[in-house]
Amino acid sequence: MSATTRRSTIIAFLGPSVLTLIIIGIGPLLYAVWTSLHYFNLTKLKQVEFIGVENYATVLSDSAFWDAMGRTFLLLGISLPIQIVLGLCIALLLHQPGLTFLKTITRLSLVLPMATTYAVVGLLGQVMFNLNYGVVNQLFGFIGFDPINWLGDPTNAFITIIFWDIWQWTPFVTLVLLAGLTTVPSEIEEAAKLETKRWTTILRYIQLPYLLPALTAVLILRTADTLKLFDMVFTLTRGGPGASTELISLLIQRVGFRAFDQGLASAQAIILLLVTIVLSQLYIRLLYKEVR
Amino acid sequence: MSTAIQAGASHRIGVQLLLLLLIILFCVFPFYWMVTTSLKTQVLALESPPVWVFEPTFANYTEVLGKDGVGKTLINSLIVAVSTTVLAVLLGCPAAYALARFEFRGKKDLWFWFITNRMVSPIVLALPFFLIVRQVGLLDTHLVLILIYLTFNLPIVIWICTDQFRAVPFDLNEAAMLEGASQWRIFRSICLPLAMPGVAVSAIFSFIFSWNELMYALVLTRNEAKTAPAMAVSFMEGYNLPYGKIMATSTLIVIPVVVFALIASKHLVRGLTMGAVK
Q1: In terms of CA atoms, which chain B residue is nearest residue A18?
Q2: Over the stretch A145-188, which tens digit does the pLDDT of each residue have?
Q3: Contacts of A103 in chain B (CB under 8 A)
Q4: DSSP letters of A158-187?
Q5: Superfamily of domain A62-287
Q6: Are strands A38-39 and A49-50 parallel, antiparallel or unpaired?
Q7: How close is the nearest chain A Cα to the Cα of B194, in Å?
Q8: Which of A51, A59, A96, B96 could form a disulfide with B162 if both were Cys (CB 3.0 to 4.6 A apart)?
């Protein structure tokens, strides 16, 4: 019947949303490309002029841009492995039989960090990691540590960001991997359990193949989300102290809205967009075998 | 020997119990701290080291809702989140139906485009959107946020609903077509009612994402259309931060999201991975 569906019908169904996305999504993007080819400063709007790819050249040779990219990937490189290891352990724990009620409660509490407004996570971070009034330093004090200046020191501030990223997104990794674990046919799993008692063997040879799609999804989505990460870091550190926690989105926001150089910021954003498009391609290629 | 196995098993259960309680504590503690801090007076909140047992007060809530105008920003958030969700569902459902039922050229590209929308950093759109909106004088209006939130809500709704429409048996379509029903009739009266659970889940997602959003709100609003997260951030200026008030506002923001997220908790994975992992 698909072949008989008339063109006008398809347009009627799809048209409104495609048109909307073109107007609000593609339109502004084209404008961003235009801006990126101009000297465009919000404080000197009279001097807007075409300068070709100069902004791009500036961005590519700008150490601040690459530092911010580097920090973004450093955050990803540290927190993602921790999230995957922790997430896998928790998922395996939840997958075990027994204690059903407590496991349901656990699963529900895993939803809390994911649902928390990102901006609130940052605010909460300020309260809990405060040098003098923070509960974290109090807890550290119980086990004999001196108070740590979490948010005032570049390295510690970065560690704080990592902590909250892990707090908020380990549950996501857990639930995705748990969903992957449930795709293992139970006969195969039962049979393997009769053969061996070592859970590592079962994980490696029975469960891992079924977990691959989930792991791929986690890898790509976490990468994209780290490149998007703004709210939590902005409310927690505003990128500081210095530029020690200035991730790529924060840098672009600062250049565009606090240094008012929209041209340069647009060039940075377009480069970020290109990275994102490559990631999305990977996501499709690896996860949707048949494009349905 | 059987007692040894039993001892081993109950030992294992004991370890499991302990680990589960630890995980719950880890997830819930920040929440506990947010709520208790919101019930402290400023003096109490600045106590060093922090106090755990105290006389709770609702003064922060009455103050932020009354004097500071957080109530208005919550209403703004509600207006924006509900409107954008309604629009996303109205526009997205027919599109999802088309993707699930029709074959046409360019379907693959359309699909790819929707995924890219899930990945694009909001800052990429925030820059040009700000310039355009400023020029047409729509800065600081609900409409702007409602529209820009569609860039991430519409793809989510289309994705989840496409999945749902595919699950509706195709025979129903064919039977209805033999009766001479138009595609629109089939969509409206047969498929849409059956796909309602998916539509509801996608609406919840759309609401949560819009309600939680900060960056666009920060860039595109000032006073009139300021949303609650942007309001919470504006408390952060100055030297002596009003911790109790900040946490009271945060609690007010987070509670509705948590309720919705718990309702949709079974579908979180599908929603967040756009159907790649079910």
Answers
A1: B95
A2: 888 889 889 999 999 999 999 999 999 999 999 988 888 888 88
A3: 20
A4: HHHHHHHHHHHHHHHHHHHHHHHHTTS-HH
A5: MetI-like (1.10.3720.10)
A6: antiparallel
A7: 18
A8: B96
